């Protein structure tokens, strides 16, 4: 059972991570103090709730409730009637543009790249299903926003050819 946040003695090293996103997990609230550190209640992009150690979140060792390790999308994990893998791509692209705490924010949101899809359904209608598990969402015009007409599924090799030129 979760402890009441208002009565919890978190200690001097406690960092509130509420609202931060780690991979496919959003930290909702402090759950309890465990033997090896604090535990957080997190919501996965697939909709499941998971209790995760804070160090596993911050190091990137845990990035989902386990749904990303299930294998091919034929295992039936869905969100809004669509496969989890497309929803995770949607959530991660949105986070890069909107969350200043995201480790890639400086390359996206801080540069003015906006995420303009109003919903996952709109995003999915534009892109459709991933052609393969190795495809990720890519912007056609690298300086453009994540929006209709400027996104596609690409392989890592295709994305490498679409990188911006470094400024000197």
Notes on the protein architecture:
This protein is α+β, with helices and mostly antiparallel strands. The chain folds into two domains: 5-58, no CATH class; 70-160, no CATH class. It contains four helices and eight strands, in the order ββββαββααββα. It has helices at residues 54-58, 84-98, 120-127, 156-160; strands at 21-22, 25-34, 37-44, 49-53, 78-79, 82-83, 136-139, 151-154. Strands 1-2-3-4 form a four-stranded antiparallel sheet. A two-stranded antiparallel sheet has the order 5-6. A two-stranded antiparallel ribbon has the order 7-8. The longest helix has 15 residues, at 84-98. Mean pLDDT is 80; it is low at 1-9 and 70-77.
- What portion of residues belong to β-strands? 15-25%
Give helix and strand order, one letter per element, not per position.
EEEEHEEHHEEH
Number of helices: 4
Summed over residues and divided by their number, the pLDDT gives a mean of 80
| Overall structural domain count | 2
Shape: elongated
C-alpha end-to-end distance: 54 Å
Q: What share of residues is helical?
A: 10-25%
Spans where pLDDT lies below 50 across 5 or more residues = 1-9, 70-77
What spatial order of strands do you see in the largest sheet?
A: 1-2-3-4
> Number of DSSP strands?
8
Question: What class would the helix/strand composition place it in?
Answer: alpha+beta
The biggest beta sheet is recorded as: 4 strands, antiparallel
CA radius of gyration: 18 Å
Features:
about 170 residues, alpha+beta, 2 domains, four-stranded antiparallel sheet, two-stranded antiparallel sheet, 8 strands, disordered N terminus
């Amino acid at each position: 059972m979760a402890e009441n946040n208002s009565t919890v003695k978190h200690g001097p090293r406690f960092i509130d991570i509420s609202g931060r996103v780690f991979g496919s997990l959003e930290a909702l609230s402090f759950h309890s103090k465990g033997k090896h550190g604090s535990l957080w209640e997190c919501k996965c992009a697939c909709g499941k709730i998971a209790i995760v150690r804070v160090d596993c979140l911050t190091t990137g060792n845990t990035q989902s409730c386990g749904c990303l390790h299930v294998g091919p999308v034929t295992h039936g994990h869905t969100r809004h009637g669509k496969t989890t893998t497309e929803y995770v791509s949607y959530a991660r692209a949105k986070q890069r543009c909107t969350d200043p705490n995201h480790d890639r924010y400086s390359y996206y949101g801080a540069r003015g790249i906006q995420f303009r899809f109003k919903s996952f359904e709109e995003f999915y209608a534009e892109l459709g299903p991933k052609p393969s598990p190795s495809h990720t969402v890519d912007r056609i015009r690298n300086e453009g926003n994540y929006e209709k007409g400027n996104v596609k599924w690409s392989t890592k090799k295709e994305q490498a050819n679409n990188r911006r030129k470094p400024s000197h």
